[in-house]
Specification:
Layout lengths: L1 H12 L8 E4 L2 H5 L1 H5 L4 E5 H9 L3 H13 L13 H18 L4 E5 L6 H9 L4 E3 L5 H23 L1
Parallel strand pairs: 1-2, 2-3, 3-4
Helix pairs in contact: 7-8
GO molecular function, one term: pyruvate, phosphate dikinase activity
Pfam families: PEP-utilizers_C
Organism: Candidatus Iainarchaeum sp
């Protein structure tokens, strides 16, 4: 459908442009069936705000009312809308990357949302094999620094393993 529609538009405009077809991965089921989705998608962009919301079953609009209490009581260590939850959301991302790349070797994967500008979340993305992070403009410098630090940390780790 996408290619047929693109072909029609290209013909109407007498112009072609290169494009890629990808999907937003925002639901746990999408992550668990990533191999099937990758048959049709050239990239995955994890919408970690929505994926966090659907994984936890929290309304993001209401979470600010109870998450501070959850943190205070030790139910949560951090606000999962600020720092990527590695046990749940992160595991779903890892599963999706593995399954997706199992079905499509050259699949590009990344995240978009506020997690893309949070340093420990960027480090997780690097360790999970993601290709990119996307974030709001004011977080770009933080994201770039965090990505560089994650790459250097990995390089240092592999260097000392080889010595």
């Amino acid at each position: 459908l996408v290619e047929r529609t693109a072909g029609k538009v290209f013909k109407e405009k007498n112009r072609k442009v290169k494009f890629h077809v990808g999907v937003m991965m925002e639901l746990p089921r999408a992550c668990l069936t990533a191999d099937k989705i990758a048959e049709f998608a050239e990239f995955f962009s994890f919408g970690t705000n929505d994926l966090t919301q659907t994984t936890f079953g929290y309304s993001r609009d209401d979470a600010g009312k109870f998450i501070p209490s959850y943190i205070e009581k030790g139910i949560l260590q951090e606000d999962p809308f600020q720092v990527l939850d590695r046990e749940g959301v992160g595991e779903l991302v890892r599963i999706a990357v593995k399954k997706g790349r199992g079905a499509r070797k050259n699949l590009r994967v990344g995240i978009c949302g506020e997690h893309g500008g949070e340093p420990s979340s960027v480090e997780f993305c690097h360790s999970a094999g993601l290709d990119y992070v996307s974030c709001s403009p004011f977080r770009v410098p933080i994201a770039r620094l965090a990505a560089a630090q994650a790459a250097l940390k990995e390089k240092r780790k592999t260097y000392f393993e080889d010595v």
